[in-house]
Amino acid sequence: MNWNDAAEDLLQSILSRTPRPVREQAEEALRGGAEAYAEENGLNRVGVNTVVAAWVRNTPDTLRAELPRQMEQLGLDPAEYEELLGG
């Protein structure tokens, strides 16, 4: 599956905030989740929105309340992802 540069950059930014002991596992989950989401939605390329969807899906419910703050820190507007965040 093809990834655009912005999606790859976002993935790496998310991973840089992930504790080192689980970073490789998180990368596999996010990368696989993003590609699965893209396929489910008939996309032939992973973009930023696809990575965000995988990020939300892979974040445990107990930690999802922190995602909007983390999104803002990465330069994303959480309001654009309210549907994914359950808002």
What does this protein structure show overall?
With 87 residues, the chain is mostly helical. It has one domain. Helices cover 63% and strands 5% of the residues. It has 5 helices and 2 strands, in the order βααβααα. Strands 1-2 form a two-stranded parallel sheet. Helix 2 (20-40) packs across helix 3 (48-58). The longest helix is centred in the middle third of the chain and has 21 residues, at 20-40. The radius of gyration is 12 Å and the shape is globular. The mean pLDDT is 96.
Report the end-to-end length measured between terminal Cα atoms.
30 Å
Strand order of the largest sheet: 1-2
Sequence stretches where pLDDT stays below 50 over 5 or more residues: none
Structural class: mainly alpha
State the order of secondary-structure elements, H for helix, E for strand: EHHEHHH
Specify the biggest β-sheet: 2 strands, parallel
What percentage of residues falls in helices of 4 or more residues? 55-70%
Beta-strand share of residues: under 5%
Number of strands: 2
Overall geometry: globular
Structural domain count: 1
Q: How confident is the prediction overall: mean pLDDT?
A: 96
Please tell me how large the radius of gyration is: 12 Å
What is the helix tally?
5
Question: Briefly, what is this?
Answer:
It is built from five helices and two strands.
Which key phrases capture this entry?
87 residues, two-stranded parallel sheet, 5 helices, 2 strands, 63% helix, 5% strand, globular
Layout of strands and helices, then pairs:
Layout: E1 2-3, H1 5-16, H2 20-40, E2 45-46, H3 48-58, H4 67-73, H5 82-85
Parallel strand pairs: 1-2
